[in-house]
Amino acid sequence: MQKDNHRLMLEKVFKEHEYQEDALLEILHRAQEIYGFLDRDLLMDISGSLNLPPSKVFGVATFYSFFKLRKPGQHVVTSCLGTACYVRGAEEIVQAVEKEFKVKRGGSTPDGKLSVFATRCIGACAMAPTIVVDDEVIPKATKEVVIKKIKEVLGGAESESV
Amino acid sequence: MKILKAFEDAVKEFGVEKECKVARTGCPGTCAVGPAVMIEPGDYLYQNVTLDKVRNIVRDHIVLGLPIKDMLYKNEGFYKKQHRLVLRNAGKIDPQRIQDYIAAGGYSAVVKCLATMTPQGVIYEVATSGLRGRGGAGFPTGQKWGLVARAHGSPKYIVANLDEGDPGVFANRTLAEADPHAIIEGMLIAAYAIGAEKGYLYIRSEYPLAIQTLQKAIAQAKSISLLGDKVLDTSFKFDLELRFGAGAFVAGEETAILASVEGRRAMPRPRPPYPANSGLYGKPTLIQNVETLANIPIIIQNGGAWFSRIGTPKCTGTKCFSLTGKTNNPGLIEVPMGITLREVVFDIGGGVAEGRKFKAVLVGGPSGGCLPDTLLELPIDYDSLTRVGAIMGSGGIVVLDDKSCMVDTAKFFTEFCVDESCGKCTPCRAGLIRIKDIFDNIMNGSGKMEDISTLEKTGVFIREASLCGLGQTAPNPVLTTLRYFKDEYIEHIAKKDCRAGKCFNEKHEEV
Asked: Which is nearest to B478 in space by CA: B424, B446, B444, B442?
């Protein structure tokens, strides 16, 4: 079962880091890679395995914006809203995506197919505005190109269903 | 990567494998015209290379000896005023091959230190060089090393800061991807000088390629005894590990980064005690930005005195800047300290994009200042920037044109700092929200003239009362826009008008 496989992989991560509490960030990163996001049960599991109070584990998981505590959609759009991208119109692109697909940044569409996140600088500033759709980086993006790409990954006739 | 393979195929097709070696390399800084292809000898740089152009380049330039003039990079001005020391190997070596780094003179500084210099001698050279921390605060590096070296406590640590959270800045990323060993060598020399045996390189998780490149570089260095229990067969021992950030700007602050390495929330703490005396796990710790560290090998190779002659007397050496925004030549540049803003924006940057009018330049990211055209003659150094309300920061320079609204810009930076504030101290946590609320009022037409003085007073208060650098510098964009662009605030409040045409536009918003 996939669940057991995931648990075995997580156990391996704990062993690699020798159950050290100062490896908590590294462990949370790997757990997010394995499970896709960090839900309450997983965080409790990690806190028990590392012998740390749950408040500490939840405290760290909620402090850092990279850690996702809710299940992301099947497809993820990450828009950089750093200075260079903002100055070159990224905010307008994000607003257009939110309007077109009826989803608010930081959240997912009701059917769980699409999530939109805004991030603060992925470091590709000379190609601003930079939008990432799943794993594809779209440099010098425009709202037309981004919306077209999202529709493509969603499989064509999606835009009405949300 | 597809272009790399296409070149390999074309070189094979034309049978010139013996004359022509195809290699990957790091970024030469001309980020907006990638993919870029360099051909040596001759320093040729081809821009915007697409798959269909590859074969022609090999046929004409390599086989027939005729460079294709209209495909070459046209901006001579971009490199002319630069002085690439930190980025000495970027674009010239394969970052995934330690042999390339060594062939370019890399690690000879470590050999020189271990074979001929004492730790005190190393610190002396660094102090003589006048190098100041490139992370933003500009504290004299040699002095910092001396403090850690003399501190009581063991073991001692070194933490390299590659958090680079400033939006708009990618200098550290490029350095790590193009020349990772320069950072490792810098750390080795620093560790030798201060007596540390363990180092952590803290890198933000938003940089996956840099992480991969560093992991490979560390493994290669280990494999030839440059890291480990007996570095180069001496009694000097140094072990290096990567640690990952997770999306917290505040983690770039020196005490916050320590908390993060220890697996805790990245919340700064009061000083004293300073990390030099009580840092990681309460032990003496040197925290240094990676750009500062990349300067160390060449300082040791060429001497502190040589370095001190570059830049200005109080601000020696060079600085990497990420030039972005409404500029014609966005990219990564490295210039001697003391160069003017005008030279950077107009000579290197090629002026404002689309022929528009220059309005402002943002120097120092969300902790920095918004400077007008009257300050274009300002020489870039730590002290002159502080005097005008900006900071050097990690080196972000964003060019704005007349379609940018300065009130909106200040609001944007304030919102960033509100998001990123750790929340520990009231001036930063509550003060910045108060400022944000005022901006929201101004933007929805319910601003009042006294808001201007409230913004000013609150900004000054946050700056003076905050616990750490984030809060202390967060008001800079607001205070500098008030200082240099007050008219725009007045127009927004009294006339509900935005001269850039950006605000008060709901009815015209096209989606």
From this structure: B442
Q: How far is B287 from chain A (nearest CA, A)?
A: 18
pLDDT digits (tens, 9 = 90+) for B185-220: 999 999 999 999 999 999 999 899 999 999 999 999
Q: Is residue B510 part of a domain?
A: no
Asked whether the beta carbons of residue A83 and residue B248 sit closer than 8 angstroms, the reply is no
Looking at the structure, do residues B132 and B196 belong to the same domain, yes or no? yes
| Domain ranges, residue B366 | 315-401
Task: Give the distance from residue B204's alpha carbon to the nearest chain A alpha carbon, in angstroms.
Answer: 10
For the purposes of burial, counting CB atoms within 10 Å of the CB of B63, is it exposed (0-12), middle (13-18) or buried (19 or more)? middle
Domain spans in chain A, listed from the N-terminal domain onward: 2-63, 75-154
Q: What are phi and psi of B90, to 5 degrees?
A: -70, 120
Chain A closest-CA separation from residue B409 CA (Å):
9
Minimal Cβ distance to B331: which of A96, A99, A126: A126
Is B454 in the same domain as B346? Answer: no
Phi-psi region of B501 (alpha: psi -120 to 50; beta: other; left: phi over 0): left
| Interface predicted TM-score of the whole assembly (ipTM), two decimals | 0.88
Q: Taking CB atoms and an 8 Å limit, are A83 and B164 in contact across chains?
A: no
In the block, residue with structure tokens 């950089």 = A80
| Residues B301 and B341 reside in one and the same domain | no
Closest CA to B159 of B259, B273, B286, B264: B286
What CATH fold (topology level) applies to the domain A75-154?
Answer: Glutaredoxin (3.40.30)
Among B246, B263, B396, beta carbon nearest to A23: B263
For residue B267, the chain A residue with the least C-alpha distance is A63
